[in-house]
Design brief:
By secondary structure, the chain is mostly helical. It contains five helices and no strands. It has helices at residues 2-7, 14-26, 31-38, 42-56, 64-97.
């Protein structure tokens, strides 16, 4: 897993992504040419354009803030589920320990 993480490319700065999307939105050149000129793949450019549409509210989806909040909520739910399981097991153990005749 560590190997995979270290070989992942670093994300491009937001300003760079915004500039590339702005150039693509002008429509003065084909997307594949714009992507090539900026040294990114055409698929990457499409993804950036979709994300920019979501951030602008022009396309349904989660923006960065919503995505972060959802991640945090899921993490909290997992933690609460684990705590609930521990408490359930402790309650079962304690109820067995308190049975008469033991």
């Amino acid at each position: 897993m560590q190997e995979r993480m270290s070989s992942m490319p670093k994300p491009y700065p937001k300003e760079f992504r915004d500039d590339v999307v702005a150039v693509a939105r002008k429509g003065e050149a084909p997307l594949n040419q714009i992507a090539r000129d900026f040294g990114i793949s055409e698929g990457c450019l499409h993804n950036w354009m979709k994300k920019a549409d979501v951030e602008a509210g022009a396309r349904p989806g989660l923006d960065d803030a919503d995505r972060k909040e959802l991640r945090e909520v899921k993490k909290r739910v997992r933690l609460l589920e684990q705590e609930n399981e521990v408490l359930r097991r402790a309650a079962a153990y304690l109820s067995q320990a308190n049975l008469p005749g033991k």
